[in-house]
Amino acid sequence: EAGVVQSPRYKIIEKKQPVAFWCNPISGHNTLYWYLQNLGQGPELLIRYENEEAVDDSQLPKDRFSAERLKGVDSTLKIQPAELGDSAVYLCASSSKGQYQGEQFFGPGTRLTVL
Amino acid sequence: GNSVTQMEGPVTLSEEAFLTINCTYTATGYPSLFWYVQYPGEGLQLLLKATKADDKGSNKGFEATYRKETTSFHLEKGSVQVSDSAVYFCALSDQSRAGKSTFGDGTTLTVKP
């Protein structure tokens, strides 16, 4: 089966510009996660969706970050405006309630560089 | 809150050497524990898991045992290969918090021929 798809793989922008990342989860997976991964660190959860509903967005900086998951399938994460400190890898993951407890399937990530 | 602490890297070994990467955790309740591996240019992928105390997860020659008394989940492999070079992440999933996952900072392993 196809894995989690993310695009773009790399993005370079200037500070104060907007940027958007797209994620298509594994077919049938109702849970979708967006993580931030800084260099040398583990993933940190930004937001988790159960179908269309954002059930945990407590770590999402809502002044500049937004996310949506229309129709409960693919999802978009947006940053507006981007800051230098947003340079990182943005990971998308998905999981199914019927599978291994807590196991997540990750996409390759989008590496964002803010100049 | 929950936390995961991994042995700091990087770790460099010769081929066929024994590997141990330490992982300890802090959590309320009874979390599930995982090791994920990230190869260069790829996303994290599940290596093995354990869902209750004394469970042993194993895959591709790697093993880890869920030790509740020491709150540990150390990763071991008896004989590493060059192809095992990657970043390894220990993680927990807290079912009491709706499956919220917490990851360690990762340990980079380099295996030299």
Helix percentage range of chain A: under 10%
What's the end-to-end separation of chain B, in Å? 41 Å
Percentage of residues in helical conformation of chain B: under 10%
Q: Give the overall shape of chain A, derived from the CA principal axes.
A: globular
C-alpha-based Rg of chain A, rounded: 13 Å
Summarize the helix and strand pattern of chain B as letters: EEEEEEEEEEEE
Sheet of most strands of chain A: 7 strands, mixed
- Biggest interface: chains and residue counts? A-B, 25 and 24 residues
Structural class of chain A: mainly beta
Distance between the termini of chain A: 37 Å
Q: What do the pLDDT scores of chain B average to?
A: 92
Beta-strand percent range of chain A: over 45%
β-sheet strand percentage of chain B: over 45%
Q: Topology, pairings included?
A:
The complex is a heterodimer of chains A (115) and B (113).
Chain A: E1 5-7, E2 10-13, E3 19-24, E4 31-37, E5 44-50, E6 53-56, E7 65-68, E8 75-79, E9 88-95, E10 105-106, E11 110-114
Parallel strand pairs in A: 2-11
Antiparallel strand pairs in A: 1-3, 3-8, 4-5, 4-9, 5-6, 7-8, 9-10, 9-11
Chain B: E1 3-6, E2 11-14, E3 19-21, E4 23-26, E5 32-38, E6 45-50, E7 56-59, E8 62-65, E9 75-77, E10 86-94, E11 100-103, E12 107-112
Detailed description of the structure:
The complex is a heterodimer of chains A (115) and B (113). With 115 residues, chain A is mainly beta. Chain A is built from no helices and eleven strands. By secondary structure, chain B is an all-beta fold. Chain B has strands at residues 3-6, 11-14, 19-21, 23-26, 32-38, 45-50, 56-59, 62-65, 75-77, 86-94, 100-103, 107-112. In chain B, the strands form three sheets. In chain B, strands 2, 5, 6, 10, 11 and 12 form a six-stranded mixed sheet that branches. Chain B has a four-stranded antiparallel sheet with strand order 3-9-8-7, with no helix packed on it. The N and C termini of chain B lie far apart (41 Å).
Keywords:
heterodimer, A: 115 residues, mainly beta, four-stranded antiparallel sheet, globular, B: 113 residues, 0% helix, 51% strand
